[in-house]
Amino acid sequence: MTYRFQFRPYQRKFLRSLTTNHGKWDIREGIILRLTDESGKVGWGEIAPISWFGSETLEQALYFCRQLPEEITDEIIFSIPDELPACQFGFESAWEWGSGKWGNEFFSMPNAQCPMPHAQSFSALLPAGEAALNQWETLWQQGYRTFKWKIGVDAIADELEIFDLLIHTLPAFTKLRLDANGGLTYEEANLWLWTCDNLKANAELPIEIEFIEQPLPVEQFQQMLELSTTYETAIALDESVATLGQLAACYQLGWRGIFVIKPGIVGSPSRLRKFCHQYQIDTVFSSVFETAIGKQAALQLTAELSQNNRAIGFGIDHFFEQEETWFQSLWNDL
Length: 334
Prior knowledge:
This protein is of the alpha/beta class. Helices cover 38% and strands 24% of the residues.
């Protein structure tokens, strides 16, 4: 099959800076692509790299797109190198969209709304620091019952104080995830896990600390493996399993805990399906702050592959303005 290939880069400004251990993030940049087959069927895809998380850079993705001919084939789409995982996801999901693999007729429209699970199925991202104390209530009113809070951003003593306020403010039956983005020392990770274990032992605390996400840097995998067997509080790998290659490597090295999978940068959807079906891993699927185009493809994978009824990490819409006007200007340009 041959497809006409078109693409456009985009920029979207966060309503507020996203602060993590990796620094501040103000503008989300990526690429929207369109494949049109010989019969006129259209498939949309998105390349949304996060180079500091383990994917290619935006410049590498743009170079790849620019060197392609205007007509591309299945062979080109399925032979994108592993060094370009966000490109693999973008092109392959556009191919799936256009092929009708997902079985949803409305996917022919670029601004179509993906059938969204209820907010209770989503984990909402809270801002780092004290700002979390002011925002959780609005998100709770929108239906969210699972929250993720960034740690490893400020001094640990300050974060533990805010954490204590947060857990005693959140309503009963809330689930809270703590995401360090690899920003803790070994001693700090022990302190956080010890603190969470003590809270679990306190039957009076009505909320659940679901897990601590990526407490240590990627290169400290063995220490995280050790910590996962030392404490009751679960650990989830994130940066350590950013791509399919890393995912397979951590599994082979013995990780049987939680895997946070970001479809937008993990690589080939078809190969991800094969891996998840083969090993039945415990997954939490998560956003890379993609647009509705990438989100539709990511949620399709999530619906197919999620295990254990864990809330998925796509509660991030409050970080951006509504997309309709922005999308329309981009589509008119194509």
